[in-house]
Amino acid sequence: MIDNTIFQNKKVAYHTLGCKLNFAETSAIGKQLAEEGYAKVRGGEEADIVIINTCSVTDTADHKCRQAINRLNRLHPNAKMIVTGCYAQLKPDEIAKIDGVDLVLGANEKFEILKYLKKWDELTDSKIRRGDILKVKEFKPSISHDDRTRYFLKIQDGCDYYCSFCTIPLARGHSRSGTIAETIKMAHDVIDLGAGEIVLTGVNTGEFGKRNGESFIDLIKNLDQIDENVRFRISSVEPNLMSEEIVKFIAGSKRFMPHFHIPLQSGSNEVLKIMRRRYTKEDFAEKVSIIRHHLPDAFIGVDTIVGVRGETEELFNESVDFLENLDFSQLHVFTYSERSGTRMLQIEHNVDLKERKRRSDLLHKLSDEKTRAFYEKQIGKEAVVLWERKRDGDVMHGFTENYVRLKRPFDKNLTNQLEKIVISKDNIALNNETL
Hints:
It contains 13 helices and 19 strands. It is of the alpha/beta class and 435 residues long. The longest helix is centred in the C-terminal third of the chain and has 26 residues.
């Protein structure tokens, strides 16, 4: 236990923005501090320490981070505020100038918060502690869970791709991961916590084992041998890393669900080249075809970005045509935001904000149409649903193996339990409504 009297009550408020990796890392920090006697604040309590784990994927993300800092400063005016995460790694000076911020920690330094708390009185020279993330080789595993049934297991961090629109390599460093043995142990730890479902997460998940001679396919084969009643899902995997071997394995797997999340970003080869992506739209279409061949009812989520520099109206329309003819289940639509330090800024052609929004709205509408069509194809089929802990009034929800969201009257005995069910119009929950 620490003896630093500056934090007599040692009550901590945590706030996380951004991706599931951030949530997993905040959970790891919270566990570390809890073991040293720090208590998480409950509703209405004022914290001694506020820890904000930030995102910086877009300008909007940066804005939300600043809003969160100001709001938490008002809620906990006497607390020491520590800001960390991607925004802190990329723009520490900007954060340090915000009223109420006492310490800014870089992406790797976030895991040393306890050290800084123990030496708080010695932190007099600067608010900022940020190292060169590109020199970091160590992987920090972490887990988190949402308010439902699934847990998120971080298996990989960083990225070596340097796409022209993205700052993630500058915020999180080079690709790195743990070993298969370490990951298996973490999975068992998650199962012991009561996980009904585990999602494997990372920045570039398919690069697991890149630097230690192991591979992602070997990892999932080993995880599939776990003799527990648990499901696994895989978060985003780059198209060039989504091999047919992986798809075929999942098709015959005991534990891995037929659920894929693959970033396309654009259905125009010219825009993909501008983005410095490592595939063509034809390559991507082939991946989808392979999945549909081995797993006709698999859920396929696709990432897209609209409004990047160089995306003319003609190229956007080409992308829309490609997506309309692609057999996917849902689009995750992101609107391009200029990021300092990226090569995209060298492209002269710029899409104005109003047009970016129009393109985003159009693809959101297309996504709704694709999801509805996918759900309609599932009607009448038998599936196994994992019912969630969270209730919505008198209703509970859950997901099938292929990520169809269902509903039923709440029954506490079914929370975190599997149930075989026939999918119907009455039990489908699409956007919280019946199909």
